[in-house]
Write a structure and sequence with these properties.
Layout: H1 20-38, H2 43-47, H3 49-58, E1 65-68, H4 75-83, H5 118-132, E2 138-143, H6 150-162, E3 166-172, H7 182-192, H8 195-200, H9 225-235, H10 237-241, E4 245-251, H11 255-265, E5 271-277, H12 285-289, H13 316-330, E6 334-338, H14 348-353, E7 358-360, H15 365-377, E8 381-387, H16 388-391, H17 395-403, E9 410-414, H18 431-436, E10 441-444, H19 449-460, E11 465-469, E12 492-495, E13 499-504, H20 509-521, E14 527-530, E15 533-535, H21 539-548, E16 549-559, H22 564-574, E17 580-586, H23 596-602, H24 607-621
Parallel strand pairs: 1-2, 2-3, 3-5, 4-5, 6-7, 6-8, 8-9, 9-11, 10-11, 13-14, 13-16, 16-17
Antiparallel strand pairs: 10-15, 12-14
Helix pairs in contact: 3-11, 5-6, 13-19, 15-17, 20-24
C-alpha cells in the first residue's frame, strides 16, 4: 500500500505521479474507516484529498507554509506529515487534535478552528518572510463558505495592494459556480500560468480605497450573498480588483492537473488566487449525498452511513428548538438568526414554521449581532442562536450595537462550557467572563431542560440584551418538571442548611447535587442554591449564605477568571464576608479536547473531585 510509505513530510515526493490516484483512494478509505470509529469532519476532508496531496508534492514543508482556514480539511495534511499511526486517537483525550495545532507538529504552521482567518495569517507570514529575507512559499487554503466572513476581504484588500508573494487557494466545495468548458478553459489556465504571459501582463490591478464590497460598484450587482458570490467567483472579477492574479477554475480531483498548475504558480510572483472545484464527501457515497450530515459527524456504520443510536434522549439544543418554534408561531415579532449553524442550534422547526423570519447570514457573527440590533431597534424580538465559541467573534458588536443602545436581543448560547472532542478552539468557557463585564445585559444559565424553557420565556419578554447559556449535553432525568417564568435576578434555594454553601451555576447542578448528598452522608448540612443568574447576581442569596456559612463553594462550567465565582466573591466582599470562598472552575488555560466527563474529571470538576477538594478545605480549618 502506498499510504504505508508516507511516514514523514515530503515522503509523498518519492511516489511516482502515476500512482498518486491510487494513494488518494487509499487515503479516502483510511479516513472513512478511522472517522467511523472516532467521529470528526469527514466530508470536507474527503473533498480535499487530491488538493492536499498536490500541495505536499509541490512544496517543501520543512520550509514552506500551508495555512488551513478553520482546519476542517486538514486531516489529510496530518496523515501526510507523519501522524498516520496516531490517527486512531483523533479527537480523543491526549490524542491527535482535530484541527491544526503547532504544538502537535511543526508542519501545522498556524492554529485554526474559527473561519476566515487564513489569509490574514498567511499575509502576516509573507510580510515577516520578506523582512527577514527568507524565501518560504506561503499558501492559504480556504473554503468558499469562509468567504461570507468579512475578515477575508479585509485581508485580501491588504494583501492585494502589497504586491507580495502569497497564494490563496479557494477550495470551492459547495456553491454552484458555473463550470468552465473544455479545451478553451484548459488553454486559458495554461496561458495564465506561463512565464510569457506573466512577463507581458501589465500591472493594471486597481487599489481599493475602501473596505471591499461596501461602496464598490461590484456590490451593486450582488442581490444576495450566494448569487453575488457566484457571479464574482465565476469570473474572478472581485479577486482581480483586489489585486490578486486569478487562476481557475480547475478540477480539484485531478491530481496531475493540480500538480502542474501549482508547480507553475511556484514560479510566479505577487498575490495569486487559485480557484479549485472539489466535491465534499468525494469517494464515500453517503458523504457525497449528505455532505452537511457528514461535515461533523459522530461514530457511524460504514456500510449504512448511519450514526450510532443515542437512545431516547433530549438535548438542550432541542428544547431551545421546540420553544422558539412554538413561540414564533404565536408571536410574529420573533425572528431567528444563525451564522451557518441552523441545524446545529436546533432551528429546523422554526425554519419550517416561520420560513420568512429565519435568517442564515453565513459565517458572519459580527454582522449577525448588529443585524439583530437593527431588527430590535424596529420593535422585533430577534434571537441569535449561536455556539459560545463563535459568539466571541461578535464581542464589539454586543457592546456597541446592542448593550450600549439597550436593545432587546436574545442570545441563545449553545455549546456553552466544555464541548468535548473539538477542543481548545471550540470550548465555550469564556462567555460568562466577557458578557458579565458588559452593562445592560442579563446572563442566565439553566440547570435543566424545563428551566431552559422557562428562562427563554422570561428572556423573550424581558427588556434589553439577554443571554441564556446552555451546554452541548442531554438534559438530566429530572429536567422535565414544569417551571413557570422566572423572576429576573432571583436564585432558587434548593435546600437550606448551615456552615457550608454550594452555589451552582447552570448545568453543573446535577454534579453539585451529588456532592451535597455525599456531604450529607458525612454528617454535614450544606445549603444548596441554583443560582440561575450570573448577572444580575441575586444579592439576597449572597446575604443568606454569607450570614450563616463559613464556607462558600461556587461551581461553574467556565473559566475561573472573571467568572461566576469571581462575581460571587465581589458581592461577598460587599457584604464584608470573612469566611472562605472557593471557586470550582477551569483554570487560566485553554482546555484540550476530550469528552466532557473526562475533562471534568481531569480538572477536578466531577462530583468526586469537587467533594474531595471541599472536604480537604473544610478539614483544614474546621467548621
Amino acid at each position: 500500500m502506498y499510504i504505508e510509505k508516507i511516514n514523514n513530510a515530503n515522503d509523498i515526493k518519492n511516489i511516482d505521479k502515476k500512482n498518486l490516484p491510487a494513494l488518494a483512494a487509499e487515503i479516502r478509505r483510511f479516513l472513512v474507516e478511522n472517522i467511523s470509529k472516532t467521529g470528526g469532519h469527514l466530508a470536507s476532508n474527503l473533498g480535499a484529498v487530491e488538493l492536499t496531496m498536490a500541495l505536499h508534492y509541490c512544496l517543501d514543508l520543512d520550509k514552506d507554509k500551508i495555512v488551513w482556514d478553520v482546519g476542517h480539511q486538514a486531516y489529510v495534511h496530518k496523515i501526510l506529515t507523519g501522524r498516520r499511526k496516531d490517527f486512531p486517537t483523533l479527537r480523543t483525550l491526549d490524542g491527535l487534535c482535530g484541527f491544526p495545532k503547532p504544538s502537535e507538529s511543526k508542519y501545522d504552521s498556524f492554529a485554526a478552528g474559527h473561519s476566515s482567518t487564513s489569509i490574514s495569517a498567511a499575509f502576516g507570514m509573507a510580510v515577516a518572510r520578506d523582512i527577514m529575507g527568507t524565501d518560504e512559499k506561503i499558501f492559504a487554503v480556504i473554503g468558499d463558505g469562509s468567504f461570507t466572513g468579512g475578515m477575508v476581504y479585509e485581508a485580501m484588500n491588504n494583501a492585494g495592494r502589497s504586491g507580495k508573494d502569497i497564494v490563496v487557494i479557494l477550495n470551492d466545495n459547495q456553491m454552484s459556480i458555473s463550470n468552465n468548458v473544455g479545451a478553451v478553459s484548459r488553454h486559458l489556465i495554461d496561458l495564465r500560468t506561463q512565464s510569457a504571459y506573466l512577463n507581458a501582463k501589465e500591472n493594471v490591478h486597481k487599489i481599493l480605497d475602501k473596505i471591499p464590497v461596501v461602496g464598490n460598484p461590484i456590490a451593486k450587482s450582488i442581490s444576495t450573498v450566494k448569487d453575488g458570490v457566484k457571479r464574482v467567483f465565476a469570473s474572478g472579477v472581485l479577486f482581480e480588483e483586489l489585486g490578486f492574479n486569478y487562476i481557475g477554475q480547475i478540477d480539484g480531483h485531478n491530481i496531475n492537473e493540480l500538480i502542474e498548475v501549482i508547480s507553475n504558480i511556484n514560479k510566479m510572483h505577487g498575490p495569486i488566487l487559485l480557484h479549485v472545484r472539489t466535491t465534499k464527501g468525494k469517494g464515500y457515497p453517503f458523504a457525497e449525498k449528505y455532505p452537511s450530515k457528514f461535515h461533523g459527524i459522530g461514530k457511524f456504520d460504514i456500510k449504512t452511513g448511519k450514526t450510532m443510536p443515542k437512545g431516547n434522549v433530549k438535548s438542550y439544543s432541542s428544547v431551545f428548538g421546540d420553544f422558539i418554534a412554538e413561540e414564533g408561531e404565536n408571536d410574529k415579532h420573533i425572528t431567528a438568526v444563525t451564522a451557518a449553524m441552523a441545524e446545529g442550534t436546533g432551528l429546523e422547526k422554526f425554519s419550517a414554521a416561520c420560513p420568512d423570519r429565519v435568517f442564515d447570514v453565513g459565517i458572519a457573527e459580527q454582522h449577525a449581532v448588529t443585524f439583530c440590533a437593527g431588527m430590535a431597534s424596529m420593535g422585533m424580538k430577534p434571537v441569535f442562536a449561536v455556539y459560545s465559541t463563535f459568539l466571541q467573534r461578535g464581542y464589539d458588536q454586543i457592546i456597541h450595537d446592542v448593550c450600549m443602545q439597550k436593545l432587546h436581543v436574545l442570545f441563545a448560547i449553545d455549546r456553552a462550557g466544555i464541548v468535548g472532542a473539538d477542543g481548545e478552539t471550540h470550548q465555550g468557557v469564556f462567555d460568562i467572563s466577557y458578557l458579565s463585564a458588559m452593562p445592560n445585559i442579563t446572563v442566565m444559565a439553566p440547570r435543566s431542560g424545563a428551566e431552559l424553557k422557562a428562562m427563554l420565556k422570561t428572556a423573550i419578554n424581558a427588556e434589553g440584551a439577554v443571554a441564556v447559556r446552555y451546554p452541548r449535553a442531554n438534559i438530566p432525568d429530572y429536567g422535565f418538571e414544569n417551571i413557570p417564568e422566572i423572576e429576573l435576578g432571583k436564585a432558587e434555594l434548593i435546600k437550606d442548611g448551615k456552615d457550608i454553601a454550594f452555589l451552582s451555576c447552570g448545568a453543573m447542578f446535577e454534579t453539585v447535587l451529588n456532592v451535597c448528598k455525599k456531604l450529607e452522608n458525612d454528617g454535614f448540612n450544606p445549603v444548596l442554591y441554583n443560582a440561575r443568574f450570573v448577572k444580575p447576581m441575586d444579592t439576597e442569596m449572597i446575604k443568606h449564605v454569607c450570614g450563616k456559612c463559613k464556607y462558600i463553594f461556587t461551581v461553574e462550567d467556565g473559566i475561573k477568571n472573571g467568572g461566576f465565582g469571581s462575581l460571587v466573591m465581589e458581592e461577598a466582599e460587599n457584604q464584608n464576608y470573612t469566611g472562605h470562598i472557593h471557586s470550582f472552575a477551569f483554570d487560566d488555560k485553554f482546555i484540550e479536547h476530550g469528552t466532557r466527563e473526562q475533562l471534568f474529571e481531569r480538572y477536578g470538576l466531577d462530583s468526586e473531585g469537587i467533594y474531595k477538594t471541599a472536604v480537604s478545605i473544610i478539614n483544614e480549618e474546621g467548621i
